[in-house]
Amino acid sequence: MFLETRNLTKQFGGLAAVNNVNFSMEKGKINAIIGPNGAGKSTFFNLISGFHPPSSGQVIFKGRDITHLPPNKIAELGIARTFQTTNLFEQSTVLDNVIVGHRLRTKSNLFDAIFRTKRLKREEAQCKGKAMEVLEFVGLTNVANKMVANISQEEKKRVSIALALATNPEIVFLDEPAAGVNPDETEGLAMLIEKMVQNGITVCLIEHKMQMIMKLAHKIMVLNYGEKIAEGTPNEIKNNETVIKAYLGGSAIA
Ligand code: ADP
Ligand code: MG
Question: N or C: which end of the chain has fewer CB within 10 A?
Answer without folding.
Answer: C
